[in-house]
Design a protein that fits this description.
This protein has helices at 22-39, 47-62, 76-89; strands at residues 2-5, 8-11. By secondary structure, the protein is mostly helical. A hairpin with a 2-residue loop joins strand 1 (2-5) and strand 2.
């Protein structure tokens, strides 16, 4: 969900109650990364353009290329593929 304040688009996280408190930490980390690496660097004329840019960032960079320390310095896609390969071997 995006909001507009003073002509600048920003992310507004929608949190739902979870049984595990660390679930929100992951969401907060993603929103922080998107805000610092994308939204703070660009200006968008409308919410649709911002949403397309965010989707591209998540699909093309955050999940495909950006290494995550929690995943052993692998991107989420590489980590998922490695997990699938391990499952096939067992």
């Amino acid at each position: 969900m995006s909001t507009e304040q003073d002509g600048k688009l920003s992310l507004a996280a929608q949190h739902e109650p979870h049984e595990k408190p660390w679930d929100n930490a992951v969401i907060e980390s993603v929103f922080s990364t998107l805000t610092h690496e994308l939204l703070d660097r660009k200006r968008y004329g409308d919410p649709d353009r911002a949403q397309r840019s965010i989707t591209e960032c998540i699909d093309d960079f955050y999940n495909a290329q950006r290494r995550h320390t929690a995943l052993g310095n692998m991107s989420p896609i590489k980590y998922e593929l490695a997990c699938q390969m391990r499952k096939r071997r067992t």
